[in-house]
Hints:
Layout: E1 5-11, E2 15-20, E3 25-29, H1 45-48, E4 52-54, E5 57-59, E6 65-66, H2 68-74, E7 76-77
Antiparallel strand pairs: 1-2, 2-3, 3-7, 4-5, 5-6
Amino acid sequence: xxxxxxxxxxxxxxxxxxxxxxxxxxxxxxxxxxxxxxxxxxxxxxxxxxxxxxxxxxxxxxxxxxxxxxxxxxxxxxxxxxx
Length: 83
């Protein structure tokens, strides 16, 4: 669908560079989620780097996920290359 995530890269400081099927791209800050339930595991930097995409959603191996709708709503547009 048009809001599916097509690319995700982990960045420093618990941020993700995300590209969405509708052409939007930018940075999503995961820090606000790190103190909540299953997302606490993402505080481990090596685990955080294991981010991927399953069915258009950003996911990690132990089934944490961020819905494309949430990413789209909180995405900070950024036309520059990931850092």
